[in-house]
Write a structure and sequence with these properties.
single chain, about 325 residues, alpha/beta, Rossmann fold, 13 helices, binds S-adenosylmethionine
């Protein structure tokens, strides 16, 4: 994976301000910021994409029966981590505003451009948790979330699985901001946050330098909402590198964007920031991962409820 030297950004995603202030924003400006946010990870700044996923989940919890469908504790942890991050605009008032039913309309507008993506955030959290729980049942002793953002899975599952070691790796700016909330929650003894720029250092090097990851243990890795911001070569590089530090039989659950006719989205993302760098059809994944050390074990994902992404699981050969 390489840094985009021209814009000084990581994984080729350019920076921009965010402006989720505590109320007083119009739906339109929120939508524009959402687009900026979805495409932004600037070196030295908290990942806007990570913040936006977490706040979207808070709003999703007031839609239909999503409060019951989302894993227990996810929304409450997300709110507290966001507030503790100190990210401008993500204060307690924003949490209250995000749960106002009118906020759903903002996401309805977003869904015109990325159909299904709002609920897709919820589906993918459920999917990832199911994969981790299944892998643990089958013997996985380490869980690693790559590009964890403000994801709450490790915080929630670590206390229930004391014989499993949970790891998160994220860019230092985001990792440090999240650590503030994790400390306030009381960091589980079996949860480790590693701050590293994977654009600068290979995952295997990061893990071996940290020293706590055991290369020989059966493990489950997650990359959620991440691959679309990498080029195809970078995705394959990450998979190869992940294979180099995991035992045979380990799993890698990930989401990926699918190619499609999203003319409006494409125009907007080109105007505001950089477009996604990779997309792949679910049915093409076996060929896509060939030679990386992973074999696809999940079925072809044809679920349109997953929005502009699809979900997949590979096994370390
Ligand atoms: C779209 S967010 C997804 C967050 C989380 N996986 C979720 O779905 O809630 C992408 C994440 O990748 C991380 N990331 C981007 N570039 C990175 C880099 N060079 N090194 C480490 N992490 C990076 C960002 O900090 C951010 O947390």
């Amino acid at each position: 994976m390489r840094e985009n030297r021209t814009s000084g950004t990581v994984w080729g995603v350019s920076g921009n301000r965010h402006s989720y202030h505590d109320g007083g924003e119009t739906a339109c400006s929120l939508l524009i910021e959402e687009f900026s946010g979805l495409l932004i990870v600037k070196q030295g700044r908290i990942s806007q994409t990570a913040l936006k996923v977490a706040i979207a989940l808070v709003t999703l919890s007031v839609k239909d029966d999503w409060a019951q469908r989302l894993p227990p504790g996810l929304v409450e942890f997300s709110e507290r981590l966001l507030v503790a991050s100190g990210s401008p605009g993500y204060g307690p008032r924003m949490m209250r505003v995000s749960k106002q039913p009118w906020m759903l309309r903002v996401y309805q507008i977003q869904d015109l451009l990325m159909p299904g993506q709002f609920e897709g955030f919820g589906h993918r959290k459920i999917f990832m948790q199911q994969q981790v729980e299944a892998a643990i049942k089958q013997g996985a002793r380490q869980v690693l979330v790559v590009g964890a953002g403000f994801d709450t899975l490790c915080l929630r599952l670590a206390p229930q699985n004391s014989d499993v070691q949970f790891f998160e790796v994220d860019h230092p700016a985001t990792s440090v901001a999240k650590a503030r909330g994790v400390t306030l929650e009381g960091q589980p003894a079996n949860m480790i946050q590693i701050a590293a720029d994977l654009g600068e250092q290979a995952l295997s090097k990061v893990l071996s330098e940290d020293g706590r990851w055991q290369f020989s243990l059966p493990s489950v890795l997650l990359a959620e909402g991440l691959f679309q911001y990498l080029t195809d070569d970078e995705v394959r590089g990450l998979l190869r590198d992940a294979a180099a530090c995991t035992a045979p039989g380990s799993r890698f659950a990930f989401t990926h964007a699918i190619p499609g006719e999203r003319r409006m989205l494409s125009i907007l993302t080109r105007l505001i920031a950089e477009p996604w760098k990779s997309t792949v059809r679910s049915k093409d994944l076996p060929e896509y991962v060939e030679g990386t050390g992973w074999t696809m074990i999940s079925d072809v994902d044809t679920e349109s409820a997953h929005g502009v992404e699809r979900y997949a699981v590979a096994e370390r050969a």
